[in-house]
Automatic annotation (TrEMBL):
Signal peptide: none annotated. It is found in: Cell membrane; Membrane. InterPro entries: ATP_synth_OSCP/delta_N_sf, ATPase_OSCP/d_CS, ATPase_OSCP/dsu. Keywords: ATP synthesis, Cell membrane, CF(1), Hydrogen ion transport, Ion transport, Membrane, Transport. It comes from Frischella japonica. The gene is atpH. SUPFAM superfamilies: N-terminal domain of the delta subunit of the F1F0-ATP synthase. Belongs to the ATPase delta chain family. This is ATP synthase subunit delta. It is a peripheral membrane protein. This protein is part of the stalk that links CF(0) to CF(1). It either transmits conformational changes from CF(0) to CF(1) or is implicated in proton conduction. Coiled coil: none annotated.
Length: 177
């Protein structure tokens, strides 16, 4: 998975830089979402991993998308097809969205709790994480009863685990050391 991200990053960065330069971020994100969904279709996946010529695969994508691609986006698809990278389109989309969020100075933050949190609790969490990350945050809340109580906050490499399960695991590790 990490290897795919590494290979997808230059394509996502090139698409993002082009979209920013031409003030077409939303159009490129929409296009990448479309072609990403197309690339995940089982029949298309089998074509992407076949011995079919890259030009034919690119033309297949362009034909499926019809009027929804401009010439630059079609060229982007052709370049990815020539390099046999169309299978990476979901990763390219994910990285593109991360670049957009970074440009907007917005961080996605996952909040996992055992029970639903109140609006006041979410506001307090958002304020604390915004201060820590020095950017606006967008909370995505999930319920996971296995953490027993408390919550876990994840954003990129940052993890704040104040769950009972996390505390018990840390205590167990300390006792075993």
């Amino acid at each position: 998975m990490a290897d795919f991200i590494t290979v997808a990053r230059p394509y996502a960065k090139a698409a993002f830089d082009f979209a920013v330069e031409h003030n077409r971020i939303e159009a490129w994100q929409k296009m990448l979402t479309l072609v990403s969904h197309i690339s995940q279709d089982e029949q298309i996946k089998s074509v992407l991993t076949s011995d079919m010529k890259p030009d034919s695969i690119a033309q297949l994508f362009i034909n499926v998308c019809r009027e929804q691609l401009d010439e630059y986006q079609a060229n982007f698809i052709k370049v990815m097809a020539e390099n046999k990278r169309l299978i990476l389109l979901p990763d390219v989309l994910m990285l593109f969205v991360q670049f957009v969020l970074a440009k907007q100075a917005v961080a996605d933050v996952d909040v996992i709790s055992a029970t639903p949190l109140t609006d006041a609790q979410l506001d307090k969490i958002a304020a604390g994480v915004e201060q820590r990350l020095s950017r606006k945050v967008r909370l995505k809340c999930h319920i996971d009863k296995s953490i027993m109580s408390g919550f876990i906050i994840r954003s990129g490499d940052m993890v704040i685990d104040s769950s009972i399960r996390g505390r018990l695991n840390r205590l167990s590790d300390a006792l075993q050391s």
